[in-house]
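In response to a reviewer's request, we include the raw inputs and outputs for one of the modeled complexes. The two entities were modeled together in a single run.
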Amino acid sequence: MSMNEFKPKIVAFCCNWCSYAGADLAGNNRLSYPADVKIIRVPCSCRVNPMFILRAFQKGADGVIICGCHPGDCHYTSGNYYTRRRMALLFSMLDYLGIERERTRLEWVSAAEGAKFSQTMNEFVEAVTALGENKRLEDLRCKE
Amino acid sequence: MQRVGVFVCWCGSNIAATVDVKAVAEALKAEPGVVFSTDYQYMCSQAGQDMIKEAIREHQLTGVVICSCSPRMHEATFRKTAESAGINPYMVEIANIREQCSWVHKDIPTGTEKAIILGRAAIAKVSLNAPLTPGESPVTKRALVIGGGIAGIQTALDIADAGFPVDIVEKKPTIGGKMAQIDKTFPTLDCAACILTPKMVDVAQNDKIRIFSYSEVEAVSGFVGNFDVKIKKKARFVDETKCTGCGLCTEKCPQKKVPNDFNLGMDMKRAIYIPFAQAVPKVATIEADYCNMLKNGKCGVCAKVCTAGAIDYKQQDEIIEEKYGAIVVATGFNPISMEKFDEFAYNQSKDVITSLEFERLTNAAGPTAGKLLRPSDGKHPETIVFVQCVGSRCDACNEKGKEYCSKICCMYTAKHAMLTRDKYPDTDVYVFYIDVRTPGKNFDEFYRRAVEEYGVHYIKGMVGKILPEGDKLKVRASDLIENKQINIDADLVVLAAAIEPDKSARPLATMLTASMDTNDFFTEAHPKLRPVESPTAGVFLSGACQGPKDIPETVSQAGAAASKVIGLLAKDKLLGNPCVAGSDEMMCNGCSSCERVCPYGAISYLDKEFRMPDRTTKVRRVAQVNEAVCQGCGACTVACPSGAMDLKGFKNNQILAEVDAICR
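The model returned the following structure tokens for the whole complex.
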């Protein structure tokens, strides 16, 4: 399979209050980004259990991005700080497991930043595409 | 097993143009649990909703997936539809195939493929949904208005008029805001004070309204209907209940060298002062940094002359705690600082002023008693140059200014030019502009009068540099229509400075968890359909804190915000968010991890008896979630080491099912 044909599977966890609305704004403004990105809505980035990310990689996701409110702007006052710490830990563990660091990302995107959302997704998809398919954690037993 | 119905919306051509909706509906039929799948032009229309209801009854659906616009748009609509067909409203899931699919992907195969995957994820989630019932919470029937300018005043008056108590918190010693500093208002040229001060008096006399002047909001907690707010009443060293506002102290105070911020520092006030004659509350305030008595204990003149005995040098800041059902933000604006605009010589010459300073110069209660005199030498200026868009409509890369149009400058500059020519017909008045924007009722007529009747010279072009030379200001500018350089020797230059949100807005937004845009203007819940509500429930927006506005717009938005507040306070109970955390007692080991991360203190512990297999009982400590306090962030679900804590509506297995469906 040539690199040009490779379409990565990307899961994006988006906070309902900021980046999910930011993605809606990107849509309103028709700011395109690759269709490889599929968004899962969560009430807060701190709802994202590291288990969800591991499961995504296990099921064959090539990249996972978590988007939350800017530090200080969390709708629930402190959720994004928990996310920041948890993800720092998880990402270093994934790194240790051999999942390239570029396959995971934590970004702050506000409800007003449609352009940033689109730009972030474009960059992320490009980075993951360059890495190619993720096979490290894929559990062959999950294959149908 | 859930019986799921799938409804794919065309949204006219919004979705159908880049997503093959029929193929999506067909593909999703094959998903587990789906017993019915269809498409329709407009699902949100009455006919579309009727179709959903009909299908729910006919196919005994237990779960509904709508593939349509963002859930932020119509989730509530479709939940109501489901409820009216007899199923729990929380058995509805939305696949966002418009904002996050058809609008951002340009070709049909790509859009269709993604829409199918998003639909699949929603089906996987809804299959694990459980009926939810929201809890009820009471409503505190009192509103808080933050900011006492015309926006806050109008909001408070309208809420009080409906019979609800309102508190205004104003950081300055008096309400009135920017409008109190303005001389005349466009396009009618009626005097700002004449229309504002009666409203200020109405506020003071209204027994439903309390004013906390010289006060700031210190902390906000709680949620819609039940906010707990701490207000810091700063020490003004005058007992408000005793002061009669006679003003004797402000005449006798020996400290005369205090910059008068009401006149933007163009003249001096005393260390004890009343900002202006019509101030509300009309109470003196001591400027602590300048008062000799407070600084070194030597003076006490004001206390001696005060017949009411209102002076209290030992007064301390006071914290007031109050409960509110709704909060209105009306923090307003300020002109931006001219510090960075060296080319206009604002820091080099006293005769380069901002438009707000010009307002004070022409105001009868201002530093020159309304005579238009140069700040440097008190002479009458013969040539005045107005520069528009100073800091407005700057390039994104231009660090000095703002990208947006400040909206009010074109009109007030026309007003200034007109008033100048009216009072002093011998004065030459030039206005440099990029565009003249007059999209309001009677606005363009007003601007044309300035040009045609009052002979104001409007020149399209920007001023490049202003050089103070002798007692003149050499204005170097370009005329873009004549395509030539222009040099004008001006006596006074007035800069129409861009406006920006008040500096207090950012920390306030953090306290309220209300969102802001990149310019620090508060974001509205929907730019068209919910313009006066913040996305945070119970927080409303009034006036220029939401974006640049003139007075009529501010007043109408203030009334709109008030009507939203009244609608909220008129309810006796609010339905809460049922998507709250819950702990599985059998799995909980009472470790307190969840309690430590909960931002709301919603988790407590209970010693509970459990029956063991050998028929003995054992007491264990287990977590209990207070559903009325839980806001549903989910922080606890991740902190829980035993997986006992889960979030209703966003359960672990639901999100995992979505992940699986996307990665399949």
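As requested, we also summarize the result in words. DSSP finds four helices and four strands in chain A. The beta strands of chain A are 10-15, 37-42, 63-68, 104-108.
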